[in-house]
UniProtKB/TrEMBL annotation:
<dbReference type="InterPro" id="IPR029068">
    <property type="entry name" value="Glyas_Bleomycin-R_OHBP_Dase"/>
</dbReference>
<feature type="domain" description="VOC">
    <location>
        <begin position="6"/>
        <end position="120"/>
    </location>
</feature>
<dbReference type="InterPro" id="IPR037523">
    <property type="entry name" value="VOC_core"/>
</dbReference>
<protein>
    <recommendedName>
        <fullName>VOC domain-containing protein</fullName>
    </recommendedName>
</protein>
Length: 122
């Protein structure tokens, strides 16, 4: 029996002053809802977003930020064509890939971190 019951949240690092770009990208482009950060953590900067499955995506400020080119977060969607259309409408380049046996795209967040979006049937 595993001691873990699931995944609660994932944190992506970003540079200081990332909040506006985080809101524009994760809410404005990807359609996630921003969550209020606890008052005790607001001083640290960053932003938190809700995923439809109840998990969370946190953007955290890193003092010596370096974009992640290999390690990444993989989000899932039901309609990859719709995601690609939204990305194109916002002039956000993405790269198609099916090497893992599922349709997916790779792209970068506003700070150059690698992101993956995987098509998952509901």
């Amino acid at each position: 029996m595993s001691l873990m019951t699931g995944l609660d949240h994932v944190l992506i690092e970003a540079p200081q002053g990332c909040e506006a770009a985080a809101r524009d990208f994760f809410t404005g482009v990807l359609g996630l809802t921003e969550l209020p950060k606890p008052a005790t953590l607001q001083k640290n900067g960053g932003a938190w977003f809700a995923l439809p499955d109840g998990k969370q995506l946190h953007i955290g400020v890193a003092k010596d930020f370096v974009p992640r080119q290999k390690g990444h977060v993989a989000l899932s969607c039901a309609d990859l064509k719709a995601v690609k259309a939204v990305l194109a409408a916002h002039a956000i380049p993405c790269r198609d890939d099916e090497e893992a046996g599922v349709p997916r795209v790779f792209l970068q967040d506003p700070w150059g971190n690698r992101l993956e979006i995987v098509k998952k049937d509901l």
